[in-house]
């Protein structure tokens, strides 16, 4: 039979990139992690890691199991959190989110926390992802929801969802063009997220990897400001597509298709492992259940 300890050893060995960090995460020895992996591979009859290289790499079969293991361990945590949901808690919860979460599913998440723990005082902070991560690291925030652009061994990283971004512009800036080769984007003014933006760093790195060097740009750390600059016809920007469907449908914005297309952007919950408790893990489980980046508040307030 497969055990949760075996799945846990495999999950953390894959996520942290080795047996030693997995052993540290699970407060056990490297030999114990190795034994659990061997037992798991024996039960399944497959190789989870390619050990022919200097550093073991996860196999395609291992990648498939990783997704199942993540769900299994998440469900285990939710079961363990049932007692937390029924226990009165009096404290202040300091939440950090970027504008995208604030403008989509944050109200629904806050409502669920209030319904389960009315004694908790909520203190949300909306800021750039880099500043939010620094605040979690400094102990000024309990948790933050940010693009998956940060790696820190002290953080627990919980996957939430990925967001489809698309190149968009006003018809006043570029009309009659639907498809643009990615490298040709350098000929236009690109409106980008900078100034402590994990998303901006991810997109910038992806553009450089594809040989694109932006020559003319405007920048802001605010999603609302980026949208305003784009609607004003000042350039092409990358915006969350589902959130701006009303503006696309009304003709205020046009989607520009590039080859290759923008990759989806994964978002995660981060919190400090050393200070996490059952309540933090319970709130995180609520976030994974509530997360919906398509739930745009702008749908309730159409752009004019």
Can you walk through the features of this model?
- By secondary structure, the protein is of the alpha/beta class.
- The chain has three domains: 4-80, Orthogonal Bundle (Arc Repressor Mutant, subunit A); 89-161 and 265-299, D-Maltodextrin-Binding Protein, domain 2 (3-Layer(aba) Sandwich), CATH 3.40.190; 165-259, D-Maltodextrin-Binding Protein, domain 2.
- Helix content is 40%, strand content 22%.
- It contains twelve helices and 13 strands.
- It has helices at 4-16, 19-25, 30-44, 60-80, 82-85, 99-102, 106-116, 129-137, 198-209, 223-231, 245-249, 278-290, and strands at residues 49-50, 57-58, 92-97, 121-126, 143-147, 155-163, 165-169, 179-181, 189-193, 216-220, 236-240, 254-259, 265-272.
- It has a six-stranded mixed β-sheet with strand order 8-12-7-11-9-10, sandwiched between helices. Strands 4-3-5-13-6 form a five-stranded mixed β-sheet, sandwiched between helices. A two-stranded antiparallel sheet has the order 1-2.
- A hairpin with a 6-residue loop joins strand 1 and strand 2 (57-58).
- Helix 1 crosses helix 2, helix 1 crosses helix 3 and helix 7 (106-116) packs across helix 12.
- The model is unreliable at 298-304 (pLDDT under 50).
